[in-house]
Amino acid sequence: MSEGTGIGASVKRREDVRFLTGSGTYTDDLNQPGQTYGVFLRSPHARARIGAIDASEALALDGVLAVYTGQDSAADGLGDLPCGWLVKSKDGSDMVSAPRPPLAVTQVNYVGEPYGLVVGETLAAAQQGAELVMTDFTELNPVVDPASAADSETIHEGLDSNVVYDWGLGDEEATDAALAGAAHVTQLDLSNNRLIPNAIEPRAAIGVYEAASGDYTLYATTQNPHLERLVLAAFVQVAPEHKLRVVAPDVGGGFGSKIFIYPEETIVLWAAGKLGRPIKWTAHRYESFLADAHGRDHITHAQLGLDRDGRFVALKVSTTANIGAYLSTFGSSVPTFLYGTLLAGQYKTPNIYVETLGVYTNTCPVDAYRGAGRPEATFVVERMVETAARELGRDPAELRRLNMIQPEDFPYETPVALVYDTGDYEASLDKALELADYGGFEARRRESAAAGKRRGVGFACYIEACGIAPSQLAISLGAGVGLYESGEIRINPTGSVSVFTGAHSHGQGHETTFAQVVSDKLGIPFDDIEIVHGDSGRMEFGLGTYGSRSLAVGGSALIVAADKIIAKGKKIAAHMMETTDDNVDFEDGTFSSGNQQATIQEVAFASYVPADYPEDLEPGLSEKAFYDPKNFTYPAGTHIAEVEVDEETGEVDLVSFVAVDDFGEIINPMIVDGQVHGGLAQGAGQALMEHGRYDDYGQLQTGSYMDYCMPRADDLPDFVVDTTVTACTHNPLGVKGCGEAGAIGSPAAIINAISDALDGHNIAMPATSEQVWRALGGK
Amino acid sequence: MNMTITVNGASHQLDVPDNELLVDLLRERLRLTGTHVGCDTSQCGACTVHLDGRAVKSCSLFAAQADGGSVTTIEGIGTPGDLHPMQRAFRECHGLQCGFCTPGMIMRAIDLVARSDGLDGGAVRDGLEGNLCRCTGYHNIVHAVLKGQELMGGNDE
Amino acid sequence: MDQSGEYRIPAERADVWRALNDPDTLKRCIDGCQSMERRPDGGFAAVVKARVGPVRAVFNAALDLADINPPESYTINVAVKGGPAGFARGSAAVTLAAQGEETMLRYAASANIGGKLAQIGSRLIDGAARKMADDFFKAFHAEMSGRTPNPAPRPQDDGRAAVPINIQVNT
């Protein structure tokens, strides 16, 4: 570990002090002058027609200011919430989008869907008012099970079926032929359980409208304030883009769930304009359960063909993806482009075909949640590989090794549209085997057996793709926005630095790591650098933080901006040194030519006080950049889980977990380790306990922390995490991204370990003690 | 009702509705927004404060129940320039990410250490069972509490 | 949710039938019942304050009677609305069998719930429903024994007689 504050140092986080002392400022901590409070009317039914809404009693209540319904917002011309990625079916037709008004107008389609807003002088008044609104619903049959949704009654009026798209990728014919000729074919039915994100800070929004200027301000728990502004301006048309400022103050975790453009902040902002007073809404946790976009929810059948030597010859995957009641902001891309493209994993499987049937159901919309498509892909690939190894009597690590893409194979083009730039998968595997003491496993298994426990070990050699790129390719595949990032570096006249980034930090520590990057690059003291993010009024543009992209894309934008600073600084320095800029070097914050030197701070001062200054050069030392990546980055690694299963109770004890990841170059190892830990816990939660479950009537059965089982401190072991490094070849920092890896590899590793303990039983997630007990023959 | 409550050493005479929760008194009335609300079923622990020296979930108490009592919140245990040993330990060990659960986690941890004769990792995990964190996977929090125990030197706050 | 049960009531079948159709008796026997009115169409409209785990609310219930075969059997169809607390729908088939001076009451009910009740009360609803049924029949038993229900703890003999003979809950 490097010392100091530059790249590679475990610098303690500067954002910590405010969080540790209770001085963080989250959306709900803010109050606005004249603020009122909003409470949403939410559907108690999974599918129903909305009849008369009688708000007279509510409006008569002291302190209730207004009741807005979907009729009101529709009459006011508010647009529908769009899905940002147009996915096409195999036959070339566009996906089928069901209109999603921010407040339901004629029909509600999932429990918790908002159809009205009650505004009160106080929260209590708004809550009491909401209880007095009488709504006539005519219940309709809900469609809940994704497996039969395609053949069920169509839930959206005007659509032909519940099929959103029937998407495919790869060469089906070649894949079928290779399977037919395979020496061995492994088949599995797999499901990827629905998860509910549960950032500990509930979503919140405050809408503000100033009539005199026509300015709107939205304070919201968002991972991407500029995208929020763009959508609210361009699609929903609450306010024009130049009259709308979106601020994301401190945000208490996101994991994807705060990327999306939701009904609530949309309506709070719109209603603030109608009412002429600020309106605050903060979700109760039950609202988070009902109405934060959920994650995963796949049903899959997969076949893996192997030749006589154990080499993979074909993988065919058929998945039904539950889209929920509507297409959420990125809901279409997650089970397609972020999933199917990852099915090569770390292996040289020559033939791959994947098809995804996206279906509407009367459940909460499903969208990106930590990993977004990649955990689902890894689960399929790694369950198949592990099962094949078991069926063939091969060591699961060695079967993987045999099939791994080798360092000399890069750049490696997969049969599912990606080009991996670099990696050394065996290096991660070897390190993980060593850290997990794989050689000692059989002895530990015997020890456990002697104590009446079944022990199992499981692997996941995952790959992911981060920083979706490049924009042109993504847009040609249906993305509605570019996927670049912006950055601006302003060297102030006194030599301190204000850095503006379009990436957003909600726990990732950008205020620290981005300052490390800029400090390292410009040779300016870490403490002189301030990172500003999360405010469309302060930075030019941004696409926010998701998909482990912040450093690879946003950090790279800062490097490009810094290069521009250096280039301009050289011109100024050259003038000071009476030479030409190609004779000026820059290193460690100092411009030099021969024996002449000027610090970057001196050059900055000269740029703002241009007394003796190049004639053709603008004053000031401030540069911005938009960085559009050339390719995805491909973090990869090996995760190894070891479990003990109690035969009597079916309880699974996750006794050890080793994660060795290749994230490319690392800016702050402490923060990277922390990101991995958090991802592993979420992955363990998916594997062992979390399940967003609806009953046959579309009622969410797991709508509180009493029923939705969150991993707690005593459910998890200490994690063993380490890294190997192959630098990303196409971004200036050589970084790949680390935010999601933990959640991507761990479910497969843990389920493989449990399956190992259960003699190969194909246990479903979550592997609760009841499920495991049943698998052991309990009744 | 009229009540007296000492919060972080300052005494307040307040007239509060019977149904006002302690957490709302702290957050809305006194604007001590370091105490957070993460759930509605008293299960996340983000609202943990000390009432008369014991960690309590302030969302599960009425303000009136703290009448005559002394409450310490995250704002009352240390300042940016003079952090409490447990706050220092959380920073040292990277025991926080988004920071939302952190105040409750620290208040719980201080109480846990103060009322034990020496915790090991397992005991810390058991003791934190009532506080949810979604970012850290608890790994660094557990290490932070052990470190905080060391820095607190067995003394309570 | 499905639930069924049997209770022995110390009264003749005709009296039990009458009592089961008398809004005042029903009101007295349902814990938290604020009003119970017979509607012109023969059904009942009730307002009940009830609690299921953390969900506490005033519920408006509409009870419709079907398959009426006095004094032997009927089916009660119930629609309960609790506003923001959620809703429940269900039906119970009730039969009365004369056993000398006494009456054996059997019921088989099924219900489903929605809204907040389902979201945070689903795990508790079975127990709550069983308790409501028990409380009802305990009070009903007392009523039919000619005693006024009393919320205070009562002598042990009452308790024993009111214990259900058999209750099954299937979810």
Produce a short descriptive summary.
The complex is a heterotrimer of chains A (779), B (157) and C (171). By secondary structure, chain A is α+β, with helices and mostly antiparallel strands. Chain A is built from 20 helices and 28 strands.
Helix content of chain B: 25-40%
CATH superfamily of chain C: START domain
Q: What is the number of helices of chain B?
A: 5
Report the CATH architecture of chain C. Answer: 2-Layer Sandwich
Order of helices and strands of chain C: EHHEEEEEEHHE
Provide a count of the helices of chain C.
Answer: 4
The outline of chain C comes out as globular
CATH topology name of the largest domain in chain B: Ubiquitin-like (UB roll)
CATH overall fold name of chain C: Alpha-D-Glucose-1,6-Bisphosphate, Chain A, domain 4
In CATH's first tier, which class of the largest domain in chain B applies?
Alpha Beta
The 3D shape of chain B can be described as globular
Number of domains of chain C: 1
Count of β-strands of chain B: 5
Q: Assembly type of the shown chains? A: heterotrimer
Distance between the termini of chain C: 4 Å
Distance between the termini of chain B: 31 Å
Percent of residues in helices of chain C comes to: 25-40%
Order of helix and strand elements from N to C terminus of chain B = EEHEEEHHHH
Provide the structure class of chain C: alpha+beta
What does this structure look like?
With 779 residues, chain A is α+β, with helices and mostly antiparallel strands. Chain A folds into 3 domains: 34-140 and 203-282, Aldehyde Oxidoreductase, domain 3; 298-468 and 631-775, 2-Layer Sandwich (Aldehyde Oxidoreductase, domain 4), CATH 3.30.365.10; 484-627, Aldehyde oxidase/xanthine dehydrogenase, molybdopterin binding domain (Aldehyde Oxidoreductase, domain 4), CATH 3.30.365.10. Helices cover 28% and strands 23% of the residues of chain A. A 7-stranded mixed beta sheet of chain A has the order 3-5-1-12-9-10-11. In chain A, strand 20 (497-501), helix 15 and strand 21 (529-532) form a beta-alpha-beta unit. With 157 residues, chain B is α+β, with helices and mostly antiparallel strands. Chain B folds into 2 domains: 2-76, Ubiquitin-like (UB roll) (Roll), CATH 3.10.20.30; 85-152, Orthogonal Bundle (DNA polymerase, domain 1), CATH 1.10.150.120. Chain B is built from 5 helices and 5 strands, in the order ββαβββαααα. Chain B has helices spanning 22-29, 85-92, 102-114, 121-127, 139-152, and strands at 2-7, 10-15, 48-51, 54-57, 70-72. In chain B, helix 2 packs antiparallel against helix 5 (139-152) and helix 3 crosses helix 5. Chain B is globular. Chain C has a single domain (2-150, 162-170), classed as Alpha-D-Glucose-1,6-Bisphosphate, Chain A, domain 4 (2-Layer Sandwich). Chain C has helices spanning 13-20, 23-29, 116-144, 156-162, and strands at residues 2-9, 33-38, 44-52, 55-69, 73-81, 87-99, 102-114, 166-170. In chain C, strands 2-3-4-5-6-7-1-8 form an 8-stranded antiparallel beta sheet. Chain C has 171 residues and is an alpha+beta fold. In chain C, helix 2 crosses helix 3 and helix 3 packs across helix 4 (156-162). Residues 147-164 of chain C have low confidence and may be disordered. At the A-C interface, helix 4 and helix 9 of A face strand 7 and helix 3 of C.
